[in-house]
């Protein structure tokens, strides 16, 4: 590996050492297609030459928008080969969000997946003079589009192939101009408290983190991963780009968002990453199936699960377990857990991680107990998601592991976690003020998270430091901690708790439509839609029981005993990124929700039994409208 290596250097190196090994796959029209390292190196060469011929130059920024697709990953590498900077964006972002990034990042060229993304940029094009050209991968639906700024990816590739034949040394010459200290990518933050900021990260930051991670988890070229999370998210870029290129393992792109689970089963990756929400959804599906199963199967599953919770994690960690428990676990593993893991697509997973939000301890223990080597990691976009990890045999459900090699951590007087390493942001794009504000005088990054190092040197996260508050009696109020306990239940999809500077804690609940709908059908409850289902007394009873169980757990914690949930409501609509209630990475915009639904918040605290509300919503086709409901409020 070259001392001043960039990602294009490493791709070229892989293509030289392992030309016939499969680098990436994509399922298209039901068929998996693969490209070797030699083939993707050639594709990146043609694409880079084409972009250069079109006018993309060193220091310029290139937008990448779409689902995980080989050609979009190659677009990232092609831009880096020219010294330009790729800027991935969330594929489900609305036009206004995309326009903000395009304007802020001075985007002139964009590579997009399909007609949906072309239509968004079409709206922007007339009002944004800096945008010059949009290249599209999938031509379906675009046959009659005659806009001069549009060009098919296949045409761009041909332009590059022709340019390369006339200038055969150009590509390598451009790569060799690159330095590891160059900005390799700009990733925009989720913007939970304001406008997203562009985080500039260097090649060296990613490569240093990837090398440590690969050594830590013993990753190698024989591993494979399913890449289905947004390309604009730091986790995907670390796992599916940086680590994949450094280690040389295979990246697999699903056919669509709707086929992820079936594609996961087909590929059977050895390395898997998912935010807690995905693991929660998987568990919800399992529990729904169990409820529909016969009495004997239900009994066997729950009895086996009790055995697994007792000793499954200990067996995985190599700890001593009584012989009778080990034998029982082996039997249930053969007949229940292994088939279950096969259905989930996790039967070959050797290493699995979750991050992005705190995961409920019960959820975490469920997967480990049935044989998934699920671990937690901790990091931010600004630290390339590389701060702490849990190591094999040293996994705790209430921590995020120990500090990684080359990383320094300290806790300031307010409890905020500060981080310093070689894998940190270079700067915020065009925001020297924000860059300065995010760093201490001695170069530590302010994470915004509150936590502490325990006696075993594990980092424990309490909550976002700005979200931690106090009830009027002085009890600590950590909303995310309570919300994560609520979200363990398959019937609760999202929760938002309120209580800072209040005498008690109250909560909004979003039910999981599929799980509760399935439950309602078994109970013979008729409903016409989400709003009607949320107003059913029986559904309130169902959620009420979940909250009572959470309160029972909280009552056993001296610090949080007085922060039990006293009142709740089931929100009449699902929180939605399109309505600005969630970020694109599905984090709650807490302050926005509190302001938007202020009338409901106050009704919870003033003791009202119900409250009428009309809410503005944005539909999938871009139209806006209003929905009205009489929301029931209940005391626990």
Can you put this structure into words, describing what you see?
This protein is of the alpha/beta class and 636 residues long. The chain folds into three domains: 7-273, 3-Layer(aba) Sandwich (Rossmann fold), CATH 3.40.50; 373-457, Roll (Luciferase, domain 3); 469-635, GMP Synthetase, Chain A, domain 3 (2-Layer Sandwich), CATH 3.30.300.30. Helices cover 40% and strands 22% of the residues. It has 21 helices and 28 strands. The strands form seven sheets. A five-stranded parallel β-sheet has the order 4-3-5-6-7, with helices on both faces. A five-stranded mixed β-sheet has the order 12-13-14-15-16, with helices on one face. It has a five-stranded mixed β-sheet with strand order 24-25-26-28-27, sandwiched between helices. Strand 27 (610-618) and strand 28 form a beta hairpin. Helix 2 (37-54) packs across helix 6 (153-166). The N and C termini lie far apart (61 Å). The mean pLDDT is 92.
Report the total helices.
Answer: 21
The CATH superfamily name of the largest domain is ANL, N-terminal domain
Q: Which whole number gives the mean pLDDT?
A: 92
Tell me what portion of residues adopts beta-strand conformation: 15-25%
User: From the coordinates shown, what is the CATH architecture of the largest domain?
Assistant: 3-Layer(aba) Sandwich
CATH class wording of the largest domain: Alpha Beta
Kindly give the count of domains.
3
Structural class estimated from helices and strands: alpha/beta
